[in-house]
Amino acid sequence: MSNRLKSEDSPYLQQHKDNPVDWYPWCDEAFERAKDENKAIFISIGYSSCHWCHVMEENVFTNKECADILNKHFICIKVDREERPDIDKHYQEVYMLLNRRAGGWPTSIFCTPQNKPFYAGTYIPPHTQDINSNAMGFVELSKLIADKISSHDMQLLQNADEIEGYIKHQEHPKEATVLSEDFVKNFMHQAKNNYETTYGGFSVAPKFPHASTLNTLLVIDKLYGDKAAKAMVINTLEQMKKGGMYDVVDGGFCRYSVDEKWLVPHFEKMLYDNALLCELYTNAYLTYKNEDFLRIAKEIADFWHNHMSEDALMYSASDADSEGEEGVYYTYGYEELSELDKESLEELSVSQNGNFEGKNIIRLDGTPPMNFEDIKSTLQTIRAKREYPFIDKKIQTSWSGMMIKALFLLGKVDVRYKQRAITALDTLLESMFVEGTLYHTTLIRKIPKIEAFLEDYAFLSQALIEAFDATANELYLISAQQFANTALEKFYDKGVWRFSRGDFETKAEISDNTYTSSVAIMVDVLLSLGTLLEDEKYTHFAFKTLEYNSYELGRRPILYPAMLRQTLRYVLGDRVVKSNIRNLEANSTALASLAYPFVLKKASDDDGFMICGSKSCFAHIKSIDEIDAIILKTF
Known about the structure:
This protein has 635 residues and is an alpha+beta fold. The protein folds into four domains: 4-168, Glutaredoxin, CATH 3.40.30.10; 183-202 and 216-221 and 271-314 and 393-572, Glycosyltransferase (Alpha/alpha barrel), CATH 1.50.10.20; 330-385, no CATH class; 575-632. It is built from 25 helices and 25 strands. The strands form eight sheets. It has a five-stranded mixed sheet with strand order 1-3-2-4-5. Strands 15, 16, 17 and 18 form a four-stranded antiparallel sheet that branches. The protein has a four-stranded mixed sheet with strand order 23-22-24-25. Helix 12 crosses helix 15 (397-411) and helix 19 packs parallel to helix 22 (561-572). The protein is globular and about 80 Å long. It starts with 10 loop residues before the first helix and ends with a helix.
């Protein structure tokens, strides 16, 4: 018998509709019942492609003993963190406060009947596994909590009150720091301390791609010719593309690697990771002219176009699991590859013992075999006989905006991607901007219900500015301005940005965590609007945001790489290249490859190229080859 989730659109909530747990979606009815019946609240947050979310469902939420305890003593609420990132952000802060470390998914929160959290975990096994461990199993923990709530345990209730007080208390920066290029020194020192020299990246294991950090290092190299920054970028990109976390067969990156070599991933593929990495590899190609980097960027874009989109709208994610096991679709048994010769098998890192639980993840440690395209076709044929991992077909405005921006950038090298970007952007606006309201997420051909958060306004506006840059169509620029104005009205207050407003209010982060900070993206948008519209009020709002966060940014810039990029942009200033549309289009790759990273374009009637700053133009030239030298002379 289905529970209350059967009527929800979210693919993640639908996955739990047949659990024996009496789940509620997030709703007032659940919280009112908890108070009326004096029952503790259990909130479980996850997403459809999360491997450990599936494990917890299998071990706990379909476990009759666990379900009976939950149904008798708790009000249980399921949340899709992709559908409601505002709720997820709040409870990730709760987890951090209670555990002094970052959380993850599934997120397991226990609250009082008044919805005051007092315990936060991630995956919790059904039973305590080690009698000497402080980590209790779900059965033991939920029974203990139920007893304490029913007996009105004063210590637990007092702790919950204190936790709520901490959460509601808003810390303001101690002081403002002058925005300066000197922040780069601290950033480089911290990046070098975190950098893993052999395989790249900024940890040993697990390893996340940290696209924002790498993009900032690339900007630092372009500005200052920093050899260390360049080495960190190139080595990390070279190592990541070898295979494992990167799927060399179908294309696209998995979310992260569990080992130091980027070999063994959790196999889910997320739109946001692939969008940010497509942009990063394209930027790296434009900077270093490494054809392999361009190939990877195109393979990412093509994978999402061919496998993860419908009617020009992009799906959110694909699962790690299929056929009840993680990685089954992506790995190969030795015998399956018997038609390949021994040399090819070695080049693909294939062995009888395998490199992942007795099977093989395809990896190219050296130069790909000459006949790799034929080999790839064989590998894809083998995969085609398997069950494809579950695809979460939610359309999200923010994540789609990220990929559309990447496609416009890639379109400066290959015009095919520009046309894809235009089609995707126009379709996204038609689907998610309805009767004057922007929405966060929906399923294809469904009416969206959840209104947009700051990240949706930010990433969509950034994509619109890229569209204007690529097409010179001023309607895109006007739309970006309108969305930015709405975001300022809804979410901005004296340098502080809210991620969400209304019944569930959360502050927006300036750190780049799962993906780039929406505050940093808004600063980027505002600086672009200030330059392109020659309107200083947008630049002012950008400055006030940077100034408000300057103390933390100066001390620990490694946590805020995108904000550091915007600080450098504000301090050094934009440069604008003006020319006729034919010149701009014909030279799109060369203009995107300029050494100075903060260059915008505007169409004019000029047959040559006019080079301008924020308030004046200072050079008119005939050859695009002169632009780098002209800009350099302005410093």
